[in-house]
Amino acid sequence: MPVILEARDLVKRYPLGEGEVTALRGVSLQVEQGEFVAIMGTSGSGKSTMLHLLGGLDLPSSGEVVIDGIGISALDEEHRTLTRRAKTGFVFQFFNLIPLLSVAENVALPFLIAGDPATRHRSRIDELLAMVGLSEKANHRPDQLSAGEQQRVALARALATAPAILLADEPTGNLDSKNGEAVMDLLSELHQSGATICMVTHDARYAAHAKRTIHLFDGRVVDESVAAAAH
Using one digit for the tens of pLDDT, what is the confidence trace for 191-207? Predict the structure, then answer.
């Protein structure tokens, strides 16, 4: 299968006082089309830093990220932003929904940001809301939803433009175990239908849904495992 996401020798340093701290130390990774990859590690291992670099939210100190054949690390900010919008969907631990917008309007946000009227994508929005089981709450505000429902809205929004890859940063981190499993079941269903997913988690139960797990420690890949049978 073609490689959708590739990291080549990523290094990331941050200034700290008069010195610096190194969050990633030469990490390389490939994610093929249709794969579900989990990145695991303890707090401070560099896993969220890595996901932000993979999605173009931040730039590496050295190394390169290639998304669907496009090397994003060398792009200027405008073109990197446009590539990120077109090629990636993000789900975060905190749902980042717009409080004043309805559920349907939040899902439509990627279209609105691109200057594309939501009315042109009504069927797509309806399809996504049905997929996450929230059709009847299309007109609700985020504060009228449970945490699990809010994360499902965030997931639908991330999928709005049918991105080449879905990047999820601790998507269950703000949920109880029941809602966490519900979100993971949705991700597994997406994977089974052909979606490419790269997820950061510290929880082995959730990583077990992935086909392949990359283990980070102190900014380096220290292990990689392949599931005998994906969920």
Answer: 998 999 999 998 888 99
